[in-house]
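Ticket 4471: requesting a sanity check on a complex prediction with glutamine. Repro inputs:
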Amino acid sequence: NNLWIAPSCSLLHSPQDLAVEEKLDAEIKSWMAFAAQKLVELGVVKQALAHGKDSVKEAIAASDAAAADRATNKKIHNEAVQKRVADLPEGADQRKSPFAERIKAQQAWMNLPVLPTTTIGSFPQTTEIRQARAAFKKGELSAADYDAAMKKEIAYCVEVQEKLELDVPVHGEAERNDMVEYFGEQLAGYCFTQFGWVQSYGSRCVKPPIIFGDVSRPEPMTVYWSSYAQTLTKRPMKGMLTGPVTMFKWSFVRDDVPLSVVAKQIALALNDEVLDLEKAGIKVIQIDEPAIREAMPLKKAQWDEYLAWACESFRLSSTGAEDSTQIHTHMCYSEFNDILPAIASMDADVITIETSRSDMELLTAFGDFKYPNDIGPGVYDIHSPRVPTAAEVEKLLRKAMEVVPVERLWVNPDCGLKTRGWKETVEQLEVMMEVTKKLRAELAAK
Ligand code: GLN
Ligand code: ZN
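Returned structure tokens:
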């Protein structure tokens, strides 16, 4: 009489009702439960406790059948993918040479000035871009017209960067709705809901993709757009990917294999993309990992194990890349101080981080730790439309020059620019370039 039963936690983070999903594959649907379905299951448990297991025979049998099917179904289980992860040879996650040698091979062809400049990837996602995508999805805009519209955006974005003389341009990510969804839509093992919204924080809601099965990459995902962007400039175009941890952390993830396996599968899919980009002549590639800190287990005792496979997965995604191919990574604001050895073990040639809002405080930690590879501390806050003064940017950059050897220092904003408008974006980057050129001249005169 005193026994209460309830779900193990709030339903706040479950999507509401699986029954309203019209486009999900019926089999995949049979393996899932959203909030409404979980409550029906709770009712089954109650019934079983109150009236005996026999009274819910059918519900239990249906559940057992779904679980048995899920354990073997070919939609989930891809032997080739599983084998590829299981058979990874010793050292598969290591670049060909250590950073000191790689950076020489990279500098030999990139010919960058001191304090090279770049951005984090996205440029303004304007209303026109979002309208074009919505019209394309509704079938109101043809594939050819959508393609042309995106190319026009990319061309404009590259032209702006040419004028600014940014050393390592990007294509601007106009074709991406979201940095996880864009890749999820092209990877096997991912599916999407129509109405699976959940609260993310405050009044913000997201509709995370679902990783239901083994992940692989049927076709190149970014080569088309990055190659097009590269035809528009002689400067090295930076390709842009989302890293394995961020790819699973911002999705709903299957619970029938360890997260480390999911991460490695995604890493190998990304690795296919890295090698295809390289083949297509894109030899600077950024693999964003903003969620690496967020995915840390709550219990400190589990950190080392997590960081080992998370960083291994990151390294796996660029395995086999030539020494001369420059791998970047980017992380948003995070408390990194206690995990710096792990961040360094990711062995990206260049890391860009948020540092402007904290007045370079984080950078001091990287400096004290003697972070071994190239580093680009953000020199202005992209979260505000405000254009910083040259004096402010100069102060931050000079601070950075005190803690990072100048030959390893990059100059960039502190995150992607997609939430900004074009006007302030250009003005902000102009200030960044003006200050960089001033300090370059000063260094040359020394
Ligand atoms: N490349 C992404 C962008 O520029 C990175 C976003 C992020 O750090 N969250 O938008
Ligand atoms: Zn960021």
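Notes from triage: The pocket of zinc ion (ligand 2) is lined by residues 120, 290, 330, 332, 415-416 (CB under 6 Å). Leaving this open until the requester confirms.
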